[in-house]
Amino acid sequence: xxxxxxxxxxxxxxxxxxxxxxxxxxxxxxxxxxxxxxxxxxxxxxxxxxxxxxxxxxxxxxxxxxxxxxxxxxxxxxxxxxxxxxxxxxxxxxxxxxxxxxxxxxxxxxxxxxxxxxxxxxxxxxxxxxxxxxxxxxxxxxxxxxxxxxxxxxxxxxxxxxxxxxxxxxxxxxxxxxxxxxxxxxxxxxxxxxxxxxxxxxxxxxxxxxx
Amino acid sequence: xxxxxxxxxxxxxxxxxxxxxxxxxxxxxxxxxxxxxxxxxxxxxxxxxxxxxxxxxxxxxxxxxxxxxxxxxxxxxxxxxxxxxxxxxxxxxxxxxxxxxxxxxxxxxxxxxxxxxxxxxxxxxxxxxxxxxxxxxxxxxxxxxxxxxxxxxxxxxxxxxxxxxxxxxxxxxxxxxxxxxxxxxxxxxxxxxxxxxxxxxxxxxxxxxxx
Lengths: 211, 211
Known about the structure:
By secondary structure, the first copy, chain A, is α/β, with parallel strands linked by helices. The first copy, chain A, is built from 8 helices and 11 strands.
């Protein structure tokens, strides 16, 4: 399968190189043909070539989008007619300071709850799995991870053991604004369990390379 | 630690009962003292009591919120002054048909990309971990799960093997609107890796009870 890479940074470079090593014909889109960076990338990706976004799109069955969000619309328009192409969109519309998403998330129930309870110490937690999992969070693969977030360190220190004693692996996800991420994470669980056919005995486990 | 449960449905009932069995003093808020449901719940939760939301809040160190989003504001106001209390907010502002969140999510880069590429088959994927993990998604705990979503079944069938051959465990998360959940999921990874001190060799693994 011929794969075009729109955006040859860390993500596009890593994936394009790996797919090339797996035997796919890989083309990297570039506006700097012959640059040191592109030369190095092509040397590491067996059989890969490069070209303008339009040329790459024309010869590819699949396009990986791995460009910054701010460059996405222009890059797609410069790639010409993409009708019928398969596009793998790996873009995240992240704000430059990594404080959140530039589009798509606006608020959270956690923050609203805090606004309705002045002086209270709100910890968002125990929202990311269903009650089936809450009844017993011990899976063969290990305990289910329970993310929590909040702005009061002492409140988090009090809540984490309450989560742990239920059998979860508690994980501090940061300040209360992270509820903007934990609530969609919960919605993901709900949709997988209830709409996508995976059932309610599912969960996510946070894993680290070290094991 | 005294724990008050605001919302005695599946979530509040499960967690309140488990905390009661662990030896905490648990109080369930109810407007239906003496109802069959509350009597059954109290019978299963050792030492637990019930009362109005205000009475429960007054005697509790920690309050679990497990009420529907639509009832949250009123319930919190009826609970009186909560200043200084620790509130565990387990509410998800889910739409009645489970199609998404009522607040906080509005759109996604994936849907925007599709709007800019008429006729193309957009699959949101490979956005939820960093390139360090993409270079090698094999962890001691098993392969990293890679969620993907899109509206074209054939495109998803083409993309899933491209993900699998990289060493990921591909998981179909449904239609392209699910990008509204996969992008915050990515933002969660980014924030944990870059802001919360967990580093870039982290990931989430989808687990099932059976496996």
